[in-house]
Fold these 4 entries.
Entry 1:
Amino acid sequence: MPKFMPLIALLLISSVAWSAPDRRTSLDEAVSEARDRYNGRVISAETRRNNGRETHNVRILTRDGKVRRLRIDAESGRPLPPRR
């Protein structure tokens, strides 16, 4: 086994870790995602902190008159399930 194989393995592992899709999302990015997803007009958008985590909450008025709510985790950029 060549001497540089451990180095290649380390580089491959680190590149996978850095290419993870999770990334911090701004409120503007959350608004754009909500607008694209529901094709409507933004009614409100705010960032809230709960238990040390920030969540972007966006409300959209769709073209058919429905209000849709989208919650996005600010740290990961992933959508969260709606609150009940």
Entry 2:
Amino acid sequence: MLGIPEMDADHAHLFALADQLHAAVAQGAPNDSIRACLAALIDHVRAHSAHEEELMVRCRYPGLEEHKAEHQLLAEKAIQFQRDLLTGHPAARADMFRFLRDWLALHMANCDRCLAVYLKNELAGAKPSAV
């Protein structure tokens, strides 16, 4: 938890979607179901990234470009996983989970935590509605 309710709720939803995807794979769900879970995750990542990036622009966050690059990496990898699943790439599922687990943990611990600290410092002298 980062201490910014809107970001925390968004991240919780992201983890819930990742958990659904993991459960679908672990239970041997058909590829169509797995692709649907992955598509929902990708849609949420896009919306979440756009929201965070708009917030960073509004508050003039100095790490905007680096943070955007991290979001872009996740989107590109997720789309590659979609392609791999469609073509039946044998390692696609394992690779996808390793990447998602590592990326989510590192991104939240590093990029998002830095953003949260910056936002809290900015809000110390601004109206709460700024976020």
Entry 3:
Amino acid sequence: MWHRSLWSMVAVCAALLVISLHEHASAPPASASGVSTPRTAASTPECRSADLSADYRARDAAAGHRYGVVRLRNTSRRTCFVQGYGGLSYVGGGDGTPVGAPADRDPGATPRVVLAPGERALSRVSETVAENYPRRTCRPADVDAFLVYPPDATRPFFVEHPTTGCLDESVHLLSHRPFHG
């Protein structure tokens, strides 16, 4: 008689386990890193320029180089994602005239970064100081700002960043990495 009760209890526990697994399998796993899972990413729209703001934060400097990050912040009321490289270049002349070559892309993983309202994605930026090059080669010019394009966007942001660039496009002063969380 006791084994009939034991088998009944085992059957009930197994049924509850199956029901529990079924209910929780449909929910996407949480991610502390901000990188979404495939299920979340499929239902989350890509951020548009209208959803974002951009700024730059200097981080460090060493031997003719400066380092910092371009930050994209989700200013919308909806969750969206960014993935990959944006565009980055110097502009000057007070009117957004390009100064020199656009940023080179440093290799790196391109995670899909899901941004809830208020959250940020970062792209590391490396700048070589224009004074490292001979004046004749560089042809120095004043820079007013970075021109920052979010990934897959056509509307850029002007992010104030006064410095000196090189008009000669064979001189590459900028490089950046993909956006990450």
Entry 4:
Amino acid sequence: MEKHMKQIARLLLAASILAAPALAQAAYVTLGPLGVPSSATYGQTYLTPSTTQFYDDYLFSITTATVDDITFTLNLSTLLGIDGLQGRLYMGDATNITSGVVTSGLLQAWSTAVPISLAGTTGTAAVISPITLTAGNYILEVRGTVTGLAGGSYAGVLNAAPVPLPAAAWLFGSGLLGLIGAARRRIGGN
């Protein structure tokens, strides 16, 4: 229950970005180093529609962790909206970015778009499923097309969590402890 409450709180924080004043488009934004566990919020607001896709790149560094991401946009009739919202992950840093487009190091292809319907409002969520990343620099790239007459906004949450130990590691560890205990009894019994 507590985990779901944290996710809801993160989404509400990200939603508050949608109401933020308009931001200028940047080739890339540094989210900074992420601790484990932690979350980083990001977002962008566009004031005018466009017939070309935008590509926004968010740079971050991390120690070994499992990372997932959700980015969403709400379409308010024809006034505000973004179509084709998607995200993907790259390994690398600012040297991988040329004119706002990531050029190498693809780790995960474009995310799946999930339709949202909330109290008569529609939108899209772009979900990147959990992926284990080793220590290093990474880029989260978000794309879409601004279709609203007054522009559009999106917001997202990037989550980092410790890498869970596989069940085999727990079994190996408990077996090793059992062998050590048996060896101590054998040595102590002689």
